[in-house]
Amino acid sequence: MSEKIAVVGAGLIGRAWAIVFARAGFDVAIWDRDAAATGAARGFIAERLPELRAAGLLDDAPEAVLARITPAGTLAACLAGAVHVQENGPERVEAKRALFAELDALAPPGMVLASSTSGIPASAFTEGLRGRGRCLVAHPVNPPYLVPVVELCPAPWTEEAVVARTRALMQRAGQVPATVKREVAGFVLNRLQIALVAEAFRLVADGVVSPEDLDATVKHGLGLRWSFMGPFETIDLNAPGGVEDYMARYGALYAQVQAEMTPCDMTPELVGDVHAARRAVLPMTEHAARQAWRDRRLMGVLAQKKGER
Ligand SMILES: NC(=O)c1ccc[n+]([C@@H]2O[C@H](COP(=O)([O-])OP(=O)(O)OC[C@H]3O[C@@H](n4cnc5c(N)ncnc54)[C@H](O)[C@@H]3O)[C@@H](O)[C@H]2O)c1
Could you say which of 10, 43, 178, 266 would form a disulfide bridge with 14 (CB–CB 3.0 to 4.6 Å)? Predict the structure, then answer.
């Protein structure tokens, strides 16, 4: 019998995690405090699976994957026999605190309790728990069945073995774990995104580049490599002698540009300008269609990258 994963909270992210784990062969129980959300999750998943299959991102038949997902009537039934709990409740610290207290009381020792929180450190909602050593953040990117990286962020008291077990589990689920060794705001992925987006706003605010050309610079420039290499690998391959050689050549430029970088004040005017520039190329009436296009493109990129680590 396969191992069971408990998915708690069946909104956007909970239902996406159910797909990830069931696709990899795990049994999944899913529960939401709102019974209607649990039901809606099943419909959503049933719609997504054939698309994933068509894109080459689902090895088994959609019906077989769907059959591994069981809606649970109670939280206790959801947790029964699970090896890992993936929590996807609301992004509010009091809500996480209450839910983790409930989970810690119900889950037998040894069951890992992971939160999908986008930005609340695990220490903020697990400190007082008896089982706090088995709690951590496992932060996905939406939707995790298309974007495999998952940031594992332990609290200071999370046991090392729990991080190791979660890393191994996520790998078996087809995800790519990255461990964030200590608690920092935004974890790693969002800090990187914020560095780039803030500088993008700054360059537009300073009149250096238009929003359209800024996007072109990333999608036809930096981003081309970044879908299959990280920034360190990029610079390593950009100089014949590797990272040290690269820094010997460009280190002074890095120092100069960093010294010029200051936090960007994203005023309503600046945000409004960028919003207006986007609307000029994509009217709001076409926004949803473009989101669907993005997901199809992402599936194509993923299918190409299949098996890459
Ligand atoms: N949406 C994203 O892009 C994204 C990305 C990464 C991480 N996350 C994180 O995932 C978590 C869930 O976000 P979402 O976007 O799925 O939100 P959502 O609003 O779609 O879903 C939250 C669900 O939690 C349920 N819920 C409320 N109280 C509960 C309780 N006590 N027990 C069980 N379920 C409860 C709600 O009924 C709802 O279905 C958040 O912590 C969020 O920060 C979201």
Answer: 10
Please report which residue ranges of 121-267 form alpha helices under DSSP H: 123-126, 160-172, 189-205, 211-217, 223-226, 231-237, 242-260
How far is ligand 1, taken at its centre, from the CA of residue 276, in Å? Answer: 30
CA of 96 to the centre of ligand 1 (A): 10
Task: Read off the pLDDT of residues 143-166 as tens digits, 9 standing for 90 and up.
Answer: 999 999 999 999 999 999 999 999
Record the pTM.
0.94
**262: domain CATH number?**
1.10.1040.10
- Residue 2, helix vs strand vs coil: coil
Q: What CATH number is associated with residue 129?
A: 3.40.50.720
Instruction: Determine the distance separating the centroid of ligand 1 and the alpha carbon of 14, expressed in angstroms.
Output: 7
Q: Which of 138, 158, 179 is the last residue of a domain?
A: 179
My answer on whether 74 and 47 are in the same domain is yes
Inside any domain, residue 204: yes
Nearest CA residue ID for atom 2, ligand 1 = 142
Ligand 1 centroid – CA 117 distance (Å): 8
Residue 184 falls inside a structural domain: no
pLDDT of 13-67, one tens digit each? 999 999 999 999 999 999 999 999 998 999 999 999 999 999 999 999 999 999 9
Pocket, ligand 1, Cβ cutoff 6 A: 8-14, 32-34, 37, 88-91, 95, 99, 116-118, 139-140, 142
Q: How far apart are CA 18 and CA 43, in angstroms?
A: 12
What is the helix (H) or strand (E) element at residue 83, kind and residue range?
strand 82-87
The number of folded domains in the chain is 2
What is the number of the ligand 1 atom nearest to the C-alpha of 89?
A: 24
